[in-house]
Each structure stands twice: as structure tokens, then as C-alpha cells.
Design goal:
Length: about 180
């Protein structure tokens, strides 16, 4: 597994893309990577995220998977992945006049719905699925899953699929978003 290393000072000078309860996400423009750095008391989630590094079949379902480890001052602190050029669903719900066509977003919504079914059929439960962990990629015109460290492998079932679809639909207010698009 590949590792990229930084000093804490280098990390602090990177653009902050987002912040959650357990981590902070930074952008490294030189490497064109997103870096998810866990807070000290949340490093246990790093192992959960890294088990997805070799799950390449998830990429066909528009899942941004970890690509390697981020080391800060000699300690493994997080992982890196590709950067999504776009907006979180939360951002789309709260901003107006966005340069996205309603028809493109509707197609993306249909695709993410189908992808959720496919991911469920692989046996993954989509824990922590919410509007901050879904992004609309303006280049690919797709909704991407960007946070997999809380996903769990379960036995495939219709109940699992229904739960995942319920979480997806609860995360995207389609009516609200469409009001803000072109």
C-alpha cells in the first residue's frame, strides 16, 4: 500500500475541504488528492477505511475508495483518495443558481439509486450515509459516495437493500435541490 508523508506544518497549510466529528479533509493540489486526517481519538476508523483499498469493484458504483495511507510526522493519521470536483448534497440543498442542469441531476439521482442497490447486493451496509458524504461530481455528472470508513459487510438481503435505499432517500431532498438548479 502506498504512503505519502507530510509534516504537521505542511498539513496546516493545505486547503481544508471539510470537517467532521472524527476527521478533517484537506486538498493537496500538488498531488491532486483529498487527504482525510483522523483526530487523535478516531484513528481506529483508519483501519476500517483501509480495508476498502483493494475493493476496486466498488469504483463502478461511483464510490471514492481510499488509495493509500497519509503519514504525518511519522505516524499514520489517515488516507488519501481522488478529489471530486463538485458539491456535497448539503451544499446543493442550501445554495442557489448552481451551474447544474436539472436533467443531469435527475440522471445522477437515478444512477446513485441503482448504485445503492448494487452496493447492497455486494453486502455492504451504508452506515453514515448523509448529505455531507454524497457529492455531485460536475465533471462526471454523477453523485459519488465519498466516505466509506463506516460501511460494514453484511449478509445480502432485501432488508439490507431497503435500509440502504431509505438512508439514501433521506439524504437527498430532490425537490429542494431541483429548485436551485438550472
Amino acid at each position: 500500500m502506498n504512503t505519502i508523508c507530510y509534516s504537521n506544518d505542511q498539513i496546516q497549510h493545505l486547503e481544508k475541504l471539510g470537517k467532521g466529528d472524527r476527521s478533517v479533509v484537506y486538498k493537496d493540489p500538488n498531488r491532486n488528492k483529498a487527504l482525510k486526517i483522523y483526530k487523535k481519538n478516531s484513528l481506529c476508523f483508519l483501519d476500517d477505511a483501509l480495508r476498502f483499498v483493494k475493493k476496486k469493484q466498488l469504483e463502478e458504483y461511483d464510490v471514492i475508495i481510499p488509495q493509500g495511507i497519509v503519514c504525518v510526522d511519522g505516524v499514520n493519521k489517515g488516507y488519501y483518495s481522488e478529489i471530486v470536483n463538485g458539491y456535497t448534497i448539503q451544499y446543493l440543498e442550501s445554495h442557489t443558481a448552481l451551474p447544474i442542469r436539472v436533467s443531469d441531476f435527475e440522471k445522477a439521482y437515478e444512477r446513485v439509486h441503482n448504485n445503492t442497490v448494487g452496493i447492497s447486493q455486494l453486502g455492504y451496509q451504508l452506515w453514515d450515509l448523509h448529505e455531507m458524504n454524497l457529492m455531485y461530481d460536475i465533471d462526471k455528472k454523477r453523485i459519488m459516495f465519498i466516505d466509506v470508513d463506516a460501511w460494514h459487510k453484511k449478509r445480502k438481503s432485501r432488508k439490507l437493500e431497503n435500509r440502504n435505499l431509505f438512508e439514501l432517500e433521506a439524504s437527498i431532498d430532490l425537490v429542494k435541490i431541483k429548485k436551485h438548479l438550472m
